[in-house]
Design goal:
CATH topology of the largest domain: Heat Shock Protein 90
CATH architecture of the largest domain: 2-Layer Sandwich
CATH class of the largest domain: Alpha Beta
CATH superfamily of the largest domain: Histidine kinase-like ATPase, C-terminal domain
Oligomer: single chain
Number of helices: 16
Largest sheet: 5 strands, parallel
Distance between the termini: 92 Å
Strand content: 15-25%
Number of domains: 4
C-alpha cells in the first residue's frame, strides 16, 4: 500500500505541546514550510488533554519536562482515554542529552524522540516516517471496519436466506402432503361411507323394530356390527390425522416404532392410489407385504409413514399398465430395512443418480420433484440411507435402511399394576348433549357419580358449588374453552386433575391440563384414563370427597 507523502502532509493533523512558546514557534515554521499546514499548539498541559481528545490528531509532539504537569503524566492520561490501537504516534521533545528522558519516554509508550535544539532535517524525517506508519495503520483499521461491516451484512443476508430456505422447505413439504392427501381423499370417503352405512343400517333396524330389542342375540349382533364400524371409522380418522399431523420445528416426537405396523398402515392409507384409482380406469395393481422379524427402532412414526406412503405412490406411478408392488422388511447388518419394489418401467442410470435431488422429476406436470427429496431428508435425519436398484423395463427397488440402535425400552409403565379405585365424583363438560350422555353412561357403569355441564361457564359454577375428584372437559366449547376452564379450575384447586378431550389433530396441551385424550374414546380408554389419573393424584394427596356422600346431578 503506497501513500503519497505530500498528500499525507497536507491532511495530517499535528498537535504540539510545550510549556515554552519559544520552542513552539520555530517548530511550527519548519512544519508549515514543508506542507504540514494543520498544526495546533498549546502551552498548558492540563488543558491540552481535552483538546487532544477533541482534535484527534495524527501525531503528537510532546515536551517531556514541564513544571506543572510532565510529559509522562500527559501520556499516561491519554492512554487512559484512548484505546491502544487508536493512539496516535508520540514524539518526545527533550533537551536532555544524557538519554534518561529518552528511555523514560520510550518505556512510557512514546514512539520516537527529538533533542533540542531541533535539527530541521531530523524533525522532518522522523515526523514523515511516523506519519507514514500511522496512515498505514489508520487505513488498515478502516479496511478492517469495512470488512467487518461487510461480513456482518453478508452473514445477516445468509441467515435470512437460510431461514427463508427452511420456511420454503416446510411449505414444499406441506404442498407435497396436500397432494398426497388429495390422492387419498376419494378412498377415505369410500371407506368412511361404508362404515357409516353399517352404523346407520343397524341403528335404523333397531329403532324401527323395537321388538328386536327383546332378542338378545339379534341385539348383540347389531351392536357388535355398529361398534366394529365405528372403530373402523375412528381408525380411518386416526391414520389421516397421523399422516397430516401439524409439523413443529421444535418437535422431535421420536418413540419406539414397530416398522411392520407402519408398513401395514401405509398400505391401507395408499389403497385409494393403488387400488381405487387404478381399477377405475381398468388397471390392476397388487400389493404384497412380506414382513420380517425385526426390533423396534427409535424414530418419528409420522415421518416414516410419510416415507413409505411416498414410495408406494411412486411405485404406482411407475406402472402405467398396472403390476405388482412388493414390500419387504427385515434386518441387514444391524440395520432395519424396508424394501419397496415395483414391476414398472424402471429408471435409466442418469435418472437413478439424480432422482433424490429436489425438483428432479420425470413425471412432467404430474410431479413436483419433491417426494423423493423429502424421503431422503427424513431418512438422513434418522441416520439412515437409501439404496436404489433399477433397470429400464425391469422395475425399481428402493431400500430404506435405518439404524437399530435406540434408547433402552422400558416396560415399567406397561407392567404397572392398576390399583382398584373407589367411586369418584366426576364433572363432565361438553357442549354436545349426546357426548355428555355417552361419557356419563361410561362412568356410571363403573359406579362413579357424574355431574354434567354443557359449557365452561356452567361447569365453573358447578365446580365452585360442589366437590369433585376429576374433571373431563371438551377442548372446543362456546363461552369458555376447555383450556381456559382448566386454568380456572387449577386456580381454585390445583389438586384436581383435568382431562381435556379433543377431536382435532393437535397433540399439545397447556400446563393446566393433566392429560389430553383424543376423541372418539372407547369405554376401555375412558376407564384406563380415569385409573391413570386417579393413581397419579392419590400418590400426592388424599381423596377430595367420597362419592357415596354426593348425589349424581345430570
Amino acid at each position: 500500500m503506497r501513500i503519497d507523502s505530500r498528500h499525507a502532509a497536507s491532511d495530517a493533523k499535528i498537535f504540539i505541546l510545550d510549556d515554552d512558546p519559544k520552542n513552539i514557534v520555530p517548530l511550527e515554521a519548519i512544519l508549515k514550510r514543508h506542507g504540514f499546514l494543520s498544526c495546533t499548539s498549546m502551552t498548558d498541559p492540563r488543558q491540552a488533554i481535552g483538546r487532544i481528545m477533541e482534535l484527534q490528531p495524527d501525531l503528537i509532539l510532546l515536551d517531556w519536562h514541564m513544571p506543572t504537569f510532565s510529559g509522562m503524566e500527559v501520556l499516561e492520561e491519554l492512554q487512559k482515554h484512548i484505546p491502544e490501537q487508536e493512539m496516535p504516534p508520540v514524539i518526545v521533545l527533550t533537551a536532555d542529552r544524557a538519554g534518561e528522558a529518552r528511555r523514560e519516554g520510550l518505556s512510557a509508550g512514546a514512539n520516537d524522540f527529538l533533542t533540542k535544539p531541533l535539527d530541521p532535517s531530523e524533525v522532518l524525517l522522523r515526523i514523515r516516517n511516523l506519519l507514514h506508519m500511522w496512515m498505514l495503520r489508520k487505513r488498515e483499521r478502516e479496511y478492517n471496519a469495512l470488512l467487518e461491516k461487510t461480513v456482518k451484512e453478508r452473514t445477516n443476508e445468509l441467515r435470512a436466506a437460510v431461514f427463508e430456505a427452511q420456511d420454503t422447505h416446510q411449505q414444499l413439504i406441506r404442498q407435497e402432503r396436500i397432494r398426497a392427501l388429495g390422492v387419498m381423499a376419494g378412498g377415505i370417503a369410500h371407506d368412511f361411507n361404508n362404515a357409516l352405512m353399517v352404523i346407520e343400517g343397524f341403528s335404523d333396524m333397531l329403532l324401527e323394530k323395537p321388538e328386536l330389542c327383546g332378542q338378545a342375540d339379534r341385539v348383540q349382533e347389531s351392536l357388535g356390527a355398529i361398534r366394529t364400524a365405528s372403530r373402523d371409522a375412528s381408525e380411518i380418522v386416526r391414520r389421516l390425522r397421523e399422516f397430516y399431523r401439524p409439523y413443529s420445528k421444535h418437535e422431535e416426537g421420536r418413540s419406539l416404532v414397530d416398522v411392520n405396523s407402519l408398513v401395514e398402515e401405509a398400505v391401507q392409507l395408499s389403497t385409494p392410489k393403488w387400488q381405487t384409482q387404478t381399477r377405475a380406469v381398468g388397471l390392476f395393481v397388487d400389493v404384497e407385504v412380506e414382513p420380517g422379524e425385526m426390533p423396534r427402532i427409535w424414530a418419528v412414526p409420522s415421518e416414516l409413514r410419510e416415507v413409505l406412503l411416498n414410495l408406494v405412490f411412486n411405485a404406482v406411478d411407475a406402472m402405467p399398465q398396472g403390476g405388482l408392488i412388493k414390500l419387504r422388511t427385515g434386518v441387514e447388518e444391524e440395520m432395519v430395512f424396508v424394501e419397496v419394489e415395483d414391476s414398472g418401467t424402471g429408471m435409466t442410470e442418469e435418472t437413478r443418480r439424480h432422482c433424490l435431488e429436489p425438483f428432479y422429476t420425470t413425471k412432467g406436470d404430474r410431479g413436483t420433484g419433491l417426494g423423493l427429496a423429502i424421503i431422503y431428508g427424513i431418512v438422513r435425519r434418522h441416520n439412515g440411507f437409501i439404496r436404489i436398484n433399477s433397470e429400464v423395463n425391469r422395475g425399481t427397488q428402493f431400500t430404506v435402511l435405518l439404524p437399530v440402535g435406540s434408547p433402552v425400552e422400558t416396560n415399567a409403565e406397561a407392567s404397572r399394576t392398576l390399583i382398584p379405585i373407589r367411586p369418584l365424583n366426576i364433572l363432565v363438560v361438553d357442549d354436545q348433549r349426546e357426548i355428555r350422555q355417552v361419557l356419563a353412561k361410561y362412568l356410571e357403569q363403573d359406579m362413579h357419580v357424574v355431574t354434567t355441564a354443557e359449557n365452561g361457564c356452567e361447569a365453573l359454577e358447578k365446580f365452585q358449588a360442589g366437590r369433585f375428584d376429576l374433571v373431563l372437559v371438551d377442548r372446543v366449547m362456546p363461552k369458555l374453552s376447555g383450556d381456559q376452564l382448566a386454568t380456572a379450575i387449577k386456580a381454585i384447586d390445583p389438586r384436581i386433575p383435568v382431562v381435556v378431550l379433543t377431536a382435532f389433530a393437535e397433540d399439545t396441551s397447556t400446563a393446566d391440563v393433566d392429560l389430553l385424550l383424543s376423541k372418539p374414546a372407547s369405554l376401555r380408554r375412558i376407564r384406563e384414563t380415569v385409573e391413570q389419573i386417579y393413581q397419579t393424584a392419590i400418590a400426592v394427596r388424599e381423596p377430595v370427597c367420597v362419592a357415596s356422600d354426593v348425589a349424581a346431578v345430570h
